[in-house]
Amino acid sequence: MPQRRREVNPDNVQESRSLASWMPQISSGTPRAIAGGHVILHSLALIDECMTFVTTDAGSQEAQPGKYDDRVMALGIAWQVRKRPLSRGSTVRPQGW
Prior knowledge:
By secondary structure, this protein is mostly helical. The chain has a domain at about 40-85. The chain has four helices and two strands. Helix 2 (about 25-35) crosses helix 4 (about 70-80). The model has no long low-confidence stretch (mean pLDDT about 75).
């Protein structure tokens, strides 16, 4: 089955670029939230990923070689998203979604 090509909405592209600006907040806010008891980790897999999430010599933050950081990033994004107000209005989806 052929895949449908989705038109790119310039507003969405701008928003996705702004996600890169979240990285410092994710990397500093999430450990503070865990240390402060605001987030309780129940997943052993997430705890393992947290233990292997490091800052490289170049200053970037990522999983150690051979390890994963998907859960760490998901937790960090969720922690930042919870600060945004909920939308109570109707959601308008782009045509074709």
